[in-house]
Amino acid sequence: xxxxxxxxxxxxxxxxxxxxxxxxxxxxxxxxxxxxxxxxxxxxxxxxxxxxx
Length: 53
Ligand SMILES: [Zn+2]
Ligand SMILES: [Zn+2]
What we know:
Elements: E1 19-22, E2 29-32, H1 34-38, E3 43-44, E4 51-52
Bound molecules: zinc ion (ZN) (2 copies).
């Protein structure tokens, strides 16, 4: 089991449809749940503070 959480809303990522990618600035892993992806909720990198769609 993973214990990843959405970077935007902090919801646990157990569902399909979640996405993960690297921060374009510092390559920190960013996680987004399906809901945040659908609604284009911005994320903020926990490491460098980069804010992106
Ligand atoms: Zn989310
Ligand atoms: Zn970053």
